[in-house]
Amino acid sequence: MDLKRTHISFKSQLRIVIIVCSILTAIEILNVLSGRSFNAIGIIPRNFESGLRGILLAPFIHANIGHFLANIIPFSIFSFLVLQHGLVRYMLVTGVCITLSGLLVWGMGRSAIHIGSSGLIYGYFGFLLLAGLFSRELKLIAISAFVGISYGGLIFGILPVMPFVSWESHLFGLLAGFLCAYLWAYEKKSDDINLR
Length: 196
Fold this sequence. Notes:
The chain has helices at about 10-35, 55, 65-80, 85-110, 120-135, 140-150, 165-185. It is mainly alpha-helical and about 200 residues long. The protein has one domain (about 10-185): Rhomboid-like fold (Up-down Bundle), CATH 1.20.1540.10. It is globular, with a radius of gyration of 16 Å.
């Protein structure tokens, strides 16, 4: 896979965001219909038997409708903005943020079931804050500025102030996003491609 940053069309970007959000919505509907039985499939720190599977599954599961709605909107916006860095970067950032933040929550989080896409959202947030600045490209710098100004208050979500909020997911997601920006934001984009 070519790791260079490649552009995809606006239509393709929207299509990707709609597909991913539709998958999250379908999972939410199934979770509701099952009486929230999916909620047990989260990250259970230091539990080898069932907790490790939650690293990959937890971002797709939400505790209730309010939790889902609170996450789906910033998830949609940040997904679209990360796609401005290219499809390959979007997949890399998504994979690294899910895996790294999940492993860190599993290893160091409180004893609880950690679910929700907020760790991934914070990963996107961290990536978007720094990636534009590192890239030195005007469009991407503008995205970093927009995210910092519009969503800067998210930074307070890494503080352990609310007992039923996984601030650990927020913190480790943010750090994973920073790492992704450091690793991949410097490289200039390759020739444009158009996905249909």
